[in-house]
Amino acid sequence: MGASSGLNYQPLYKQIKSLILQRVIDGNWSPGEALPSEQQLGKEFGVSQGTIRKALDEMTAENIFIRKQGKGTFVSQHSAARSLFHFFYVVSNDGKRVLPDSKVIGLTRASANKQEQNRLKLKAGDKVIRIKRVRFLNDKPVIVELISLAVKVFGDFLKKEEIPNTLYELYESQYDVKVLKAVERLKAVKLKKEDASLLGMKAGAPVLEIDRLATALDTRPVEWRLSFVDTSDYYYLSELT
Amino acid sequence: MGASSGLNYQPLYKQIKSLILQRVIDGNWSPGEALPSEQQLGKEFGVSQGTIRKALDEMTAENIFIRKQGKGTFVSQHSAARSLFHFFYVVSNDGKRVLPDSKVIGLTRASANKQEQNRLKLKAGDKVIRIKRVRFLNDKPVIVELISLAVKVFGDFLKKEEIPNTLYELYESQYDVKVLKAVERLKAVKLKKEDASLLGMKAGAPVLEIDRLATALDTRPVEWRLSFVDTSDYYYLSELT
DNA sequence: GAGTGGTCTAGACCACAAT
DNA sequence: TTGTGGTCTAGACCACTCT
User: Fold this and answer.
1) What does pTM read for this prediction?
2) Predicted confidence band at B1 (pLDDT cuts at 50, 70, 90)?
3) Who has the most CB within 10 Å: A75, B52, B93, B133?
């Protein structure tokens, strides 16, 4: 296998996996596009189909690819439905998942503050775009969201009116940023006065604060999102395994 | 493979998996015990080592087994550390995980109320055990917990003084109940007056409510737990993938 | 050295989708 | 019928652990 002697041993399929991952990061295949067949990839890399399979197995588990029996292996793609299932854990009290609507109420550009520098790994002076929006579930305002994006990643951004509901779709199609993982930190806090009217609640009411950092394929942090959720009629779902 | 004709097709390794799972449920092997080697299991079931491996792969991913290269495959076991990592998502603001202490302040037996009947799938009149305790992180009271257990599963329970800190270890070793999954529903609520003094907070302060239902290997719901967390110095961690 | 899990291969066959 | 992913096998060899 040519790798080496004891210390840095990496199984073949792991090495193949890195190579394939790099191709995805490089944009070798577009989201939604089919990869070459496992047999072809095997020939190309000089390994057996089983080894390719094991590499693709792991990457499929990581939501990088989607397999369709009889059709092929495809680069995964964000869609409204996928965003809903993978990155939206607010569920109605009766257990039903609801697709939120959004209304953008602010879009500004500024120098990153300390928190943004910390979370997005920016330097003092780096610029960010800030989006503030309200999300509606069943036509009721339920979530206030503050979103921060690094200008150096996203460049100039859309006009307020053009910002779509499902941002991760946009990041992927327009900015070549594929969000695959996010870490959320949850707290119960008092609703701020400035957000009270947006949610139709009293200032000081308990709301769920969700502090989310989303990272791209190459593990760069790309979006920081601070949400405040009215959990009277909804809850946040977490499955432990 | 003898299975059948198109409709109910189950791959061999899935069938093997069911058989092995049933053996674990039946207590064929104890927690911490080693299974026969993959080769031996292969002979026993009349399949290749690769097929056994694929079954064990999935079960290892489900935390039913733990593999140790060079040693064998073992039935997983709850331990304080494992409980901490798999079932305790409250993390200090600086990101460090802390093992909680507990103080039991109530242990009663009663007929299941509506919520308990619903969650634990009990009938009217079925008995439950209720435990109330306070959990400390770094010697500070942070969580109030209300735990409900079905008497028909756990029978008579320990004395208040004998209840250990990590319950899932106890369920497994004493009651043959292996908790592998749990679903948590999170909300932000006002701290109740009766719990205020326990956490050293004011009544009405925002706290994180965690409604957890834990299920056993055989998918029975076995424990319902309602927690109220002071998230001033801690947060709830959720990783989305 | 013996035993266990972990990797890798080459080849066969099955299930599914498209044509 | 063809091509794709999905399953299964038998055998080889590697890495790790214990004696």
Assistant:
1) 0.93
2) very low
3) B52
pLDDT of A5 > 60? The answer is no
**Residue B151 CB-density burial (10 A; 0-12 exposed, 13-18 middle, 19+ buried):** middle
pLDDT in the model for residue B220: 93
Identify the residue whose Cα has the smallest distance to the C1' of D10. B48
B158 and B224 co-located in one domain? yes
User: Which residue among A182, A229, A240 sits closest to B184, beta carbon to beta carbon?
Assistant: A240
Residue A8 pLDDT? 67
In the sheet with A140-150, reading across from the earlier edge strand, the strands are: A101-111, A127-137, A140-150, A221-229, A206-216, A179-190, B234-240, B90-92
Q: What is the CATH number of the domain that holds B127?
A: 3.40.1410.10
Q: Does B240 touch chain A (CB under 8 A)?
A: yes
Taking the CA of residue A51 and the nearest CA in chain B, the distance in Å comes to 14
Q: What is the pLDDT of residue B8?
A: 67
Q: Cα separation of A38 and A44, whole Å?
A: 10
pLDDT surpasses 80 at A173: yes
User: What is the distance between the alpha carbons of residues A238 and B95, in angstroms, rounded to a whole number?
Assistant: 19
| Average confidence score pLDDT of chain B | 94
Report the distance separating Cα A144 and Cα A196, nearest Å: 10
Q: Which residues of A touch B235 (CB under 8 A)?
A: 185-187, 211
Angstrom distances, CA of residue A181 to CA of A49, A214, A217, B21, B232: 28, 6, 8, 31, 26
Nucleotide in closest CA–C1' contact with A15:
C7
Is A115 part of the contact surface with chain B (CB cutoff 8 Å)? no
- The CATH number covering residue B49 comes to 1.10.10.10
In a domain, B4, yes or no: no
Q: Looking at B21, B47, B75, which one is the last position of a domain? A: B75
Contact A145, A226 (CB under 8 A): yes
- One domain, residues B229 and B125: yes
Interatomic CA–C1' length for residue A83 and nucleotide C19, angstroms = 34
Q: What is the rounded average pLDDT for all residues in chain A?
A: 94
